[in-house]
Amino acid sequence: ISIYVAAVSIITALVRAFLQSNLYTPVPSPIYDFVIVGGGTAGSLIAAELALSHPNHSVVLLESGPGVRNNPLSEQSVPGGAVHNIAFGNIDWGHTVEPQRTPLNTEDIPDGYTYNDRSYPIPRGKGLGGSNELNFMLHVRGTTKDYETWEAMTGGDPRWGPASMQSAEDEYQAAITFASKPNPHLLANDWVEAAGTSHYNKIQGSYNDPKVIREGGFHYEHAVRDGVRQSTARQFLLPRMGLRNLDVVVGANVEQILFHTQQEDSSVRAKGVALSLDACVVTSLSVPDLGTLIPNMRCLFGGRQSKDVGRRMEVIARKEVILSAGAYETPHLLLKSGIGPKDELHASGIDALVDLQGVGKNLQDHPIAPLKYRLGKEGGAWLPKSGGRLSLLIPSTITDYLLRGQGLLSSSGCEFGYFGASSPEYEGRPDLQVHGMVTAGDSNFFTELLKIPKKILEDTGVPSDFGLFGQGLAVGPTLLHPKARGEVRLRPSSLEQNATSANNKGYPIIDYELFHNEEDISRLIEGIRRTQSIMAQPAMAAHEPTLLHIRALSDRLGADTDEYWREYIKRIGFVVYHPVGTCKMGRIDDPASVVDPELRVIGVDGLRIADASVMPDITSGNTQVPTAAIAVQMVRILKEKYRPGDGAV
């Protein structure tokens, strides 16, 4: 019966992919009312809702990556494939952070443990749904104090205060399903129980309830419906793609914003974009642990012809251009187009149309210090009954997922967490979070993604010697409000000789010196201490956990000293892929602001930004829901300005 169910599901998935591929527009028209760049969390929602509410206005969504399929048979759809999905080449931009320069303690530390200039990938979703298609589906709203901070930073604009932003989150949530896993892993249950018996408590009710104090242990809520990942592309955009006034173009690489300068007053207005076309594809049929089964599918029946691939063209916006390309690509596109710090643009050979000092600055993210726990006596735990990958060999695992959307494959593995304040300054707006991963053996996360040197990983050890058939824990204390800031800049070496900004397709410099701020490191160490305290409570102690150390460091610095953890964090820590703030929203008299409270780019008419880059300050948790709420606010702002009856499709 398992083979029969799998066969029927695969055939159904292929038919749905075949039908959905017909909905994409192969080549955009020369002119639309609204041109939206980027089909991620914000862009997909804005395009869908704007086209629905304004049937007489034409809307085009331009996405550089592939289309998306809303069915259970792609690795990005299956929650159990999340750890493999991160940095999946088909849907990831492939960005890396610039080498870290923070000095390491190398005194008496053996060679191989003192590496400097460390760099690591920072995945960003490339395709409809954006990073919502490669994250761990954790559903976390902003806090009341987060939005009080935004309101103050925008000069008291109530649209960005708690009441309005919470209503925007409610509006987004009305279209999706989110909840804690119905049958949590026993380790997740024991973690929450342990937090409740510790000094740090457990959260009573949902951490997403604005009335609930976000302090304590909890089960994560996930944006999953019937065992399938949800995103704004799936829940908002795909159901609207039959609208006559909406075109969705995938494989559309926007290279430059086009501007018109008025001779009378020298004012600058965005008039459209320049782009080139790649092949139109829909993501492949793939399965966790088995990999890609069928290659990426070309868009059929009306799909892009070979003669159009590589074609360069311009698309004009009658009314506005809206950038929703994310915290890395949105400022990069502005810089390539001549909007940004004047001196930096000139140094890259680009004429500055508008001198905006804040473009690319104020980069914020959430640093994380991953810890690995071995469960049981030496050798680790053999616990297939609790969700090791051995379960993949059991036919009921497949049928439970395909028929009921339940079981091992219905969970990303990140099931338990903790929120807390390291000091009274952060009460009500926690600065500490824990991401708790139930792992099978050792994850490829450390080796394939983080590029941690093999010598360090071998010295640390693995959670279980039983590999795929074992059980371990990866627990990541995370800092939510770091003092460290980074920036996105143009990469001069990517500019062709005598090239204009339109020809520059190189990736940006993403410079984020993560662990040079001693206060940030001290607060992360506090997060580690709280994790240790919870793990020592009876409910977790019953699993006989052993925290794994880098032995070469612990022998020199002590296994549990602050100095050891400081050096551990510098060598193993990374960001948890929540970049925000690079096109900061704020008052127009603030020289660091890029957009005003109506999300208009300062000094440019007809150009707005709506994505995580406009967040003036990072939120107290995962950033996907606040980003969706920004998109809701963008639609509200456009509805106020443009009446649905105006325009001509």
Helical segment count:
17
Number of strands: 28
> Biggest sheet, open or closed, and with what strands and sense?
8 strands, mixed
First-last Cα distance: 50 Å
* Helical content (DSSP H or I, runs of 4+): 25-40%
Structure classification? alpha+beta
Q: How much β-strand is present in the residues?
A: 15-25%
Task: Describe the 3D structure.
27% of the residues lie in helices and 18% in strands. By secondary structure, it is of the alpha+beta class. The strands form nine sheets. Strands 1, 2, 8, 9, 10, 15, 27 and 28 form an eight-stranded mixed beta sheet that branches. The protein has a six-stranded antiparallel beta sheet with strand order 4-20-21-22-19-25. A hairpin with a 3-residue loop joins strand 12 and strand 13 (291-294). It starts with a helix and ends in an 8-residue tail after the last helix. Mean pLDDT is 86; it is low at 384-389 and 493-505.
Brief summary of the model shown:
This protein is of the alpha+beta class and 649 residues long. 27% of the residues lie in helices and 18% in strands.
SSE topology sketch:
Blueprint: H1 2-21, E1 31-37, H2 41-53, E2 59-63, H3 82-85, H4 144-153, H5 162-173, E3 179-180, H6 186-197, E4 216-219, E5 221-222, E6 224-225, E7 228-229, H7 232-237, E8 246-250, E9 252-261, E10 268-277, E11 281-282, E12 285-287, E13 291-294, E14 297-298, E15 312-323, H8 326-336, E16 339-340, H9 342-347, E17 354-355, E18 367-368, E19 371-374, H10 395-404, E20 414-420, E21 432-439, H11 445-449, H12 454-460, E22 472-479, E23 487-489, E24 509-511, H13 518-535, H14 538-541, E25 546-547, H15 551-557, H16 562-572, E26 574-575, E27 604-605, E28 607-609, H17 624-641
Helix pairs in contact: 1-10, 2-17, 4-5, 5-17, 13-16, 15-16
